[in-house]
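Researcher: Next entry in the queue.
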Amino acid sequence: MIDKTANIHASSVIEDGAHIAADCKIGPFCHIGAHVKIAAGCALLSHVVIAGHTSIGPKTRIWPFASLGHQPQDLKFNGEETTLEIGARCMIREGVSMNPGTSGGGGVTRIGDDCLFMLGTHVGHDCMVGDRVIMANNASLAGHVIIEDDVIIGGLSGVHQFCKIGRGAVIGAVAMVTNDVIPYGAVVSKRPDLSGLNLVGLKRKGIDKTTINGLRAAFSDVFRDEGTLKTRIGAARKKYPGNPLVVEVLDFLDAKSTRSFLLPRADK
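Model: Structure for this entry, 268 residues:
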């Protein structure tokens, strides 16, 4: 059933049996399956594919190339009838994928209200995601994950299957969560250190050996000697005045930085 107030682009395919409620906007080249239910005021911008027994809550917006409700990525899945339920006022950005449940996990994947799923995020089968959850670019939930309300998951992070993330927790970018996280907890993955110089790149550019060796010596002086960084920079300027690579690095260090600088690990 398609409400007469729905605005559907001529290039989109709406299979018989789909329910499209009032004031929905279906942009070009979308494909809506026969068992899909889209509530009032939703907008599919373009190239959105919604399959299976999927329901979309009111005023949810879905960006291009999102794939919702297709067969779960579980080898035990045998075509059983399971569902994907997405709440109201969610924003589902480009390339997001969400899978329905499986019979072994309760048969439903459920997304709460007012959530934001940024580009490339994935919600696996049988996940339970609360309200006002934010998943940043390319973050992923494996199967059977529980995310409580008001959780933020940083970009490129992953949550292992069967994990539970408590209300109000924050997961920093590029984290791999393999255990439950307490409510209001903060998870930060190990951040990288400055491991040295790109010597291979310098040699490929044809930089002469004397200049490279001078940069290596200055690197050691600036990052491993005693004293403040500012003092070490000043000393290096006097010691290596004719080396253009050293001058470039020192100018970079002297320039304004809003995030400070990566440094070598202290025990190296």
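Model: Residues 209-224 form the longest helix (16 residues).
Researcher: Noted, moving on.
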